[in-house]
From TrEMBL:
Name of protein: Uncharacterized protein
Taxonomic placement: Eukaryota, Metazoa, Chordata, Craniata, Vertebrata
Length: 378
């Protein structure tokens, strides 16, 4: 079912579809004049720092959306393009994928972003009589049948992956088999949604040849397998510090003070917390408001700690699984950061644990991220 709002006056103001009454392209001059009148502090801050704090960004969105609603004609996409043109530091380029740098303000395909969230808040305040809409049934077109998985399975390559043990002599053959089964594997994972355990039972070489996970991720992202490791410490952390310095929250300031005397794993962990502070709230549904969650609680879904000396097998016992918050795969650090911790990916719902052959938290986070891509997890 698709909601199609009738062109009542209030709804016309907040919808950016073809129901708009007028379609006048705004220029940066228009936005600049608006901010000079309604939010001069935003312009002053950008002039002085070349960046915007969270509070200033919220004010920018509030003023811009209010003007959008009042004047009927400014479409969301035109508005966000105007914002990043006027404030270049607000443009964010994603390491891979097609993007123009304004998607955190508004992304059409996913209906997300700061602008969309502000419009949701406005819609929720509309009177019931103003929320007139009609339901339009969407008809699905039948797709031509495709060959079954069994008809396309390269059985000889799957057998090789399962039977051939990793060694220097066998490495090239195994990598070739992984490459030959890539399309079948992705189709199987996407259509059948196997569990984590089932995936690694079918492709056990991903467990004892970690480089295969890098190869798989590279094929999925057009060669971006080392992007996070290259960018995190040298580019992303300095940028996070620069943005966080503009914030006035005591929690963020305390984290930055700690970061000044930290390095390696401790610095990585602290900056992950800073990143969570700076991320926008996530809406939990079409009509639900976005909300910030506790930073310590959020980061525990990524990484939890157990005492040094804890065995990997014990992480899957009922008593230990009860102490892990996330049902989804997460990192577990056996021991404290900076003291020879061992990192393990644990998927407690699947009773699965994968010890990682890495010696630092940055590489462990990178491996967890690739693990999610490999298993098509969200």
């Amino acid at each position: 079912m698709v909601e199609q709002y009738a062109p009542s006056p209030c709804l016309v103001l907040v919808e950016s579809s073809g129901l708009m009454c007028h379609s006048t392209d705004a220029t940066t001059t228009g936005l600049l004049a608006l901010l000079e009148e309604k939010a001069p502090t935003v312009l002053r801050e950008h002039e002085e720092t070349k960046m915007l704090s969270i509070s200033s960004r919220k004010l920018l969105v509030k003023v811009a959306v209010s003007d959008l609603v009042e004047k009927h004609g400014l479409k969301k996409l035109a508005l966000v393009k105007e914002i990043v043109l006027l404030f270049p530091s607000l443009r964010i380029s994603v390491p891979f994928g097609q993007n123009e740098g304004h998607e955190h303000f508004f992304d059409g395909p996913s209906h997300s972003g700061f602008i969309e969230m502000r419009l949701r808040n406005i819609r929720r305040k509309l009177q019931q009589s103003q929320r007139t809409y009609s339901l339009k049934r969407r008809h699905c077109k039948l797709q031509p049948s495709s060959p079954s998985l069994e008809e396309t399975v390269p059985s000889e390559w799957l057998t090789l992956i399962k039977r051939m043990r990793p060694s220097t002599e066998n490495s090239s053959s195994i990598k070739n088999a992984i490459d030959q089964t890539f399309s079948y594997r992705r189709k199987w994972i996407m259509t059948k949604s196997p569990t984590v355990g089932e995936i690694f039972k079918e492709y056990p070489r991903f467990l004892d040849m970690p480089s295969l996970m890098d190869i798989e991720f590279s094929k999925l992202t057009d060669g971006k397998e080392d992007m996070f490791i290259r960018k995190w410490e040298g580019t992303i952390i300095p940028k996070l510090k620069e943005i966080a310095l503009l914030e006035k929250k005591m929690d963020i300031r305390q984290l930055l003070e700690k970061a000044d005397s930290q390095d390696d794993d401790e610095l990585c962990y602290t900056m992950l917390k800073v990143l969570i502070h700076l991320l926008p709230p996530m809406p939990s549904g079409r009509s639900a408001a976005g909300s910030k969650c506790c930073v310590n609680s959020s980061v525990s879904y990524l990484l939890e700690f157990v005492p040094a000396g804890t065995s990997v097998i014990s992480l899957l016992t009922e008593s230990m699984k009860g102490s892990l918050k996330s049902g989804q795969p997460q990192l577990v650090s056996i021991g404290s950061l900076g003291h020879g911790a061992q990192y393990v990916i644990v998927a407690k719902n699947d009773s699965f644990a994968l010890p990682l052959d890495v010696d630092n938290l940055t590489c462990a986070v990178d491996r967890l991220f690739k693990f999610y891509w490999l298993c098509n997890l969200q």
